[in-house]
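Ticket 4471: requesting a sanity check on a complex prediction with nicotinamide-adenine-dinucleotide. Repro inputs:
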Amino acid sequence: MDKSIPTQLPLYIDGQWIQSDSKEWLDVTNPATGETLTRAPYTTPEELRNAVISAKKAFSEWKNTPIPTRARIMLKYQALLKEHQEPLARILCEETGKTFEDAKGDIWRGIEVVEHAANIATLMMGETVENVASAIDCYSYLQPIGVCAGITPFNFPAMIPLWMFPMAIACGNTFILKPSEQDPITPCKLAELFEEAGAPKGILQVVHGGRNQVDLLLEDPDIKAISFVGSVPVGRHIYQTGTQYLKRVQAFAGAKNHMVVMPDANKNAAINNIIGSSVGAAGQRCMAISVAVLVGEAQQWTPEIRDVMAKVKPGHWKNQDSDYGPLISPAARERVLGYIEKGKSEGADCLLDGSKFSVTDFPNGNWVGPTLFANVTADMSIYTDEIFGPVLCLVNVDSLDDAIQLVNTSPYGNGTSIFTASGAVARKYQHEILVGQVGINIPIPVPLPFFSFTGWRASFYGDQHAYGKQAVRFYTETKTVTARWFDSDIEHAEHANMTIH
Ligand code: NAD
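Returned C-alpha cells:
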C-alpha cells in the first residue's frame, strides 16, 4: 500500500488539515484486493458550516486579488501536478483499480483544465461599446459570485474535481469540494498540491461524506453555486434542490452513448475503437460507448468484434498487460452481473459473458470480464439503462436514418460517434443528432478545455457547462456599467485648485 496514504483522511477547512469529530466513518477500499486503504469521515454539520464560513471570509480578499496573481497560482499548480503526476497516479490506481496509463490520463485531462484556468485574464474580459448614446459609453465586467461547491463522482477522482475548482477559483470565487466517498484520497492530494502552489488559506476546502453532507451544502444560504457530476437520479435531485434554494446549478449526469458504424468505415479502426471505448476503464466512463449501432453490411463484422473483444483481459494495475481494472465496489459488480443475467433472459445473444471472470492472485477484486450482447433491441433493459460496466450492446439497423432515429429516441445526450468514410454521412449525422458531443471517426469525443464539456438532455441539467468560456459564465456575474461624463466638467478639471489634503 502507498505509504503516503494516512490511516484516516483529514478534512481541509480554513487552510488546516484537521481530524473530523464525526462518529460515522467509511472505509475506502482497494477494488482490486478488497483491502482497506483508509477511512473517511462523514463530516459533521458543524464542520461543514465552518468550511462555508471560512470560504465566505476568504472570498472577501480573494475576489480583490489581482488576476495575474490568481493566474500565477494556476501556473505553479500546473507545474506541481505535472511533477507529481506519477505518484498521484499510483494512489489513484490503488483507490480506483484503474490501469496506470488510465490513471495518468485522468490526471492529465485535469492538468489541461488548470492550464486553461491560468489564462483567466483574457477569459474574464468584458465587452465595451462606445457612444451607446451621445457621450455615453457602456461596458461590462465579469465578477465572481462567491462561495461555490462541487460534488464529484468516483470514476474520475482527479479530472472532475479539476474541471471545477481551478476555474471557479481563478474567476475569484472560493470553493468547497465534496469528492466521492468511494475514492477521496486523490482529491485530498490535489488539495495538498494546491496549497503548495501558494493558494491562500480558505479559498479551497475539502469535506467528505455522502448524501446528508451534500444536502446540507445544497441548503446552505452562503453557497451561491453548485457543480455536480454523477448519476441521473442524483443529478436531478441536486438540480431540483439546488435551484429550489435559488442557487446556480450545473449537474452533469449519466449516459448511454452510441457509436454508429457505417459499412464504408475503416473496419480495423472501427472495431478497435468499439472495443477500447466500451470496455476501457471497465466501462466506468460517462463517455464510454455502451451501444454500437451496426448499419447494414457492418452487421457482418459481429464475429470479428467478438474475437477482438475476447482478447481483452482485466487485471491488477501493476501488471502492465492489464487492459482494464476492477469495478469500483462489490455492489457495482453485483449490479453489472444483474444486468448480464437480465440481458440473457430478455433474449439478447450473449456472445461473451464476463460474469465468471477472475484474476489469479486477486480473488477479492471486483472483476467483470468483457461482455458482448448481439441482436439487442431498444426495449431491453441492457439497452435502456446505464450499466456502467464492461458490457457492450450491438444493435442492428438498416439505414443511417434508422440509426439517427434510435440515438435521438434515447433520453441521454452525452456523447456519440460515427465511423464512416463519407463526409456527407458525417455531416448529416453531426447536424441531425440530438447529442451534445459528437465524434467523427473518434470514439470518445471529450472536448479540450478551451471548448466546454457539453452533454445534453438527461445527461445534463442546467445551462452553462464545465470548463471553457461556459465555466467562466457559470462562475461569474456580469456587471454592466453605463457611464456619462460631462464636457462642461473638463474646464473645471483643468482649472481646479490643487489642494493637498
Ligand atoms: P453518484 O451519483 O452515485 O455519486 C456522485 C456524487 O453524489 C458523490 O459525491 C456522492 O457522494 C453524491 N451522492 C450520491 N447519492 C446522493 C444523494 N442521494 N444525494 C446527494 N448526493 C449524493 O455517481 P457515481 O456512481 O459516483 O458516478 C457514476 C455516475 O456519474 C455515472 O452515472 C456516470 O455516467 C456519471 N458521470 C457523468 C459524467 C458527465 O460528465 N456527464 C462524468 C462522470 C461520471
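Notes from triage: Residues 151-156, 178, 180-181, 210-211, 214, 229-231, 234, 237, 252-255, 286, 386, 388, 414, 453, 455, 459 surround nicotinamide-adenine-dinucleotide (CB under 6 Å). Leaving this open until the requester confirms.
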